[in-house]
Amino acid sequence: MSAIQTYVRKTAPRGRETERIGPFLATYSPDTPHPMLNYAIPDDGARPSAAEIDALTAAYRRRSLLPRLEYFTDVAPDLEKLLVGAGYGLERRVALMTCGPAGLVDRPAPDGYVVREPVSREDHRRMRTAQNHAYGEPGEVTDQDVDKAMQGKATSALVEHLVSGEIVGGGIALEIVDGTTEIAGIGVLGTHRGRGLAAAITAFLTREAFTKGAHTAFLTPGDGEIQRIYARVGYRPAGECVHLSLS
Questions:
Q1: What is the maximal distance between C-alpha atoms in the chain?
Q2: Is the dihedral angle over the CA atoms 125, 127, 130, 135 positive or is it negative?
Q3: Dihedral sign, CA of 14, 172, 43, 90?
Q4: Of 66, 70, 93, nearest to 247 (Cα)?
Q5: What is the pLDDT of residue 157?
Q6: Residue 229 backbone zone (phi > 0: left; psi -120 to 50: alpha; other: beta)
Q7: CA distances (Å), 121 to each of 15, 91, 142, in order?
Q8: Contact yes or no for 98/234 (Cβ under 8 A)
Q9: How big is the chain by its Cα radius of gyration, in Å?
Q10: Rounded distance, CA 42 to CA 48, Å?
Q11: Domains, the chain, with CATH or none
Q12: Which residues are paired to 25 by β-bridges?
């Protein structure tokens, strides 16, 4: 678990401003106040003082951001109680699931669809648009968004409906660091769900990550139903992640 938390601690600062506050690494996204892109990560074994928690809260308040943390509970088992005592509330508690090369179960795309890597700017734009719609977010994708997707070290995958040519979903395997990668952003348009497309995207990305040298892939499903989809690809529960914030 510590290795996965270390991975997050190394990769979360990519493209963000950071600040060390007591036993916390605070990260700030300069282009958006979105809570999922602005959060703090604790050190392993963190047991901050009340003053250190207050300093973390103040740092986010100064930037007009929601004070917020995301971390795996096993690496800092005493922290949640301390944060709740300081007024923080639990947003959600989600499973951490991991998969290794020996556990991967291939899930090919169903008939009428293909899963592939995007090969053009338009592919990236259409894939991101589909992901945004799948998550109920605005569909607009900027040139800057496309540039970031094409210049980074992540591997993207989209799913295309072969008859219509519509791109109906996608996902990403983030940069591999010390043999570990995170699978994220798996999203399929509502009109195409229930066909095994999310599992096919996840299997494709996980397989590509292992081909490129990863030995551990992990993800954090949003709920039990999604967790069952990832289980069909070979992912198994390995812990939990908590999101806490102070409104």
A1: 60
A2: negative
A3: positive
A4: 66
A5: 98
A6: alpha
A7: 20, 35, 11
A8: no
A9: 18
A10: 9
A11: 2-87 (no CATH), 101-239 (3.40.630.30)
A12: 20, 41
Task: Give mean pLDDT in consecutive 10-residue pieces for the chain, a chain of 247 residues.
Answer: 93 94 97 94 98 98 98 97 98 96 97 97 95 89 85 92 97 96 96 96 98 97 88 97 97
> At a CB cut-off of 8 Å and minimum separation 6, what does 51 contact?
none
Is there a contact between 68 and 40 (Cβ–Cβ < 8 Å)?
A: yes
**CB-based contacts of 218, cutoff 8 Å, min separation 6:** 4, 7, 96, 97, 98, 99, 180, 181, 182, 183, 238
Tokens of 183: 């699978």
The whole-model pTM stands at 0.92
Helix (H, G, I), strand (E, B) or coil at 71: strand
- Strand residue runs (E) in the chain: 17-21, 24-28, 40-42, 68-72, 89-99, 113-116, 155-161, 167-173, 180-188, 216-219, 236-245
Amino acid at 179: G
Separation between Cα atoms, residue 155 and residue 173, nearest integer Å: 5
Q: What is the rounded CA–CA span in Å between residue 71 and residue 3? A: 12
The pLDDT of residue 214 is 97
The pair of structure tokens assigned to 235 is 């992912």
Q: What's the first-to-final CA gap in the chain, in angstroms?
A: 29
Report the residue count for the chain. Answer: 247
CA distance 124 to 182: 19
Say how far apart CA 159 and CA 172 lie, in whole Å: 12
